[in-house]
Amino acid sequence: MGGFYAPCMKFGSIFSCGLLSFLVSSAPAENTAIKPYDSEAIARAMASDKAASEKLKSDPQRPAYHFLPPANWMNDPNGPIQHNGYYHMFYQHNPYGDGWGHMHWGHARSRDLVHWEHLPIALWPSLEAGEEHVFSGCSTIRADGKPVIIYTSVKEGKSATDFAEQWLAVGDEELIKWQKPTSNPALSDTLHGATKVWDWRDPFLFNYQGDDFLVLGGNLNHGKGGEGVVNLYKAKDSTLMNWEYVGILFKHPDPKVVNIECPNFFELNGKWMLVISPHRRVEYFIGNFDGKKFTSEKQGLMDESDSYYAPNCTTDDKGRRLMWGWVRGFKGGQGWNGCLTLPRELRIDEQGKLWQRPVKEMSALREKKVFEAKDLVLKEGKKIECKTPQLEIELTFVSGNDSGIRLFITEKNPGLEIFYSNGELKVGGQKSTLELGPNDPLNLHVFVDRSVVEVYANGKSCITKVHESPATDFALELYSLEKTSIVNGSVYELNGIW
Ligand code: FRU
């Protein structure tokens, strides 16, 4: 799965299926779980992660300050939430290998958005109930104070394209132990009446005028194109167990879009924003919402790279909208695969333009300033020797034209070029949509974390690249083909987070 259009792949199960064991209890529905907190399944999965993490060589490509699991595969970030002084991050995780499969929800928390603590796996496939994967979803704190997750449950023997259900899990105060009420599913496809929704998955919760709503991705014609949709549902009560189908919130205007995954829908700076993963680069739409329909006024790309997919977001007590994407495109067979982008803060300005920047907390990782430029006139270029492939580069080229940065230069390797010329910014040869006038300054904020490079250009364009990094000594070069380019800013070496 993981962003590729394919019917749900089948994996040979390495689990042994137990009997369907419903707990008989007089407790309220949520406490009567299907195998309440399956500690066996979780212990087995975590033992597998631990064994794999011990085997991880010190791999110079493995990111050191981007969030990733202890070992093995990850894809989408799921249900990020701030609760009791911690940011919690869940994520699609295969604890049994470094490829996609056996979807669980990994879990970690952070006090500062920078350093993360791994926690026990949160959600596991309830094999005894015929569940094969726990797919992506969201989390919230319900009106009664109970933490809940809503996720897509995929059954063994069924393809996720044809059949899926949306399930609820109820957590403890620390968000560590989760139970799946026997009253699941919370939403089933009978809600749609005669309409068949294919690839029905990835619930995202939001509140509008005091009511709880969900959006879910999918398509209306078995992925043949032209009918990629985001559907809208309204909660009938505060348990979040009972829902009604409102209708189609959004149909993709491009007939080439076969399906929509991981919709995020939220209010930001007085506008409504829809973010979708349509099996190609992640798109956003900014517009208005009336409780039923979304009308889009502007659209663009969240990140101008194929290495970024399936983002998810939350708000925090500082009033920020924070978003993380899944970074993909790493070489297989390394015992790990996938990480998250840095948390990005989103803002929409008065002209309805989207701005994105890495959260300012990231500056806590600065270990040493290795270069500073104050009105440096770039004539023949400036080389900076680097001892570590963990860097933060924040530079403004006063006149942006015909100037840039080369990263990872070794004797044998020309490196990765970030270059602006004639109105075009290119990263590794790939053109971005950033638009600048000939005399506009170019601000590049670049995070290099071994094989992951995140480029933020003028706060508007983000480009995430997976690029092979030299293990250690390499050079970084600032250069200009124009005689007059003046540069200001700094380069820092960064610490790792584990
Ligand atoms: C996106 C996706 C989601 C799905 C999950 C499965 O990458 O395909 O639609 O829930 O991954 O891991």
Q: Total helix count?
A: 1
| Mean pLDDT over the full residue set | 91
Major sheet strand order: 23-34-25-30-31-32
Envelope shape: globular
- Ligands bound to this protein structure: beta-D-fructofuranose
Low-confidence stretches: 1-29
Number of strands: 34
Distance between the termini: 29 Å
Largest sheet: 6 strands, antiparallel
Structural class: mainly beta
Radius of gyration: 23 Å
Helix content range: under 10%
Write the topology of this structure.
Layout: H1 39-55, E1 72-83, E2 86-94, E3 104-110, E4 117-123, E5 131-141, E6 147-155, E7 165-171, E8 178-179, E9 198-208, E10 211-219, E11 228-235, E12 243-251, E13 261-268, E14 271-277, E15 283-289, E16 294-301, E17 308-315, E18 321-327, E19 336-337, E20 339-340, E21 344-348, E22 354-358, E23 366-377, E24 382-386, E25 390-397, E26 403-409, E27 416-421, E28 424-427, E29 430-431, E30 442-449, E31 452-457, E32 461-466, E33 474-480, E34 486-494
Parallel strand pairs: 1-19
Antiparallel strand pairs: 1-2, 2-3, 3-4, 5-6, 6-7, 7-8, 9-10, 10-11, 11-12, 13-14, 14-15, 15-16, 17-18, 18-20, 18-21, 21-22, 23-34, 24-33, 25-30, 25-34, 26-27, 26-33, 27-28, 28-29, 30-31, 31-32
Beta-D-fructofuranose is lined by residues 1-3, 75-76, 92, 103, 135-136, 152, 201-202, 261-262, 277, 309-310.
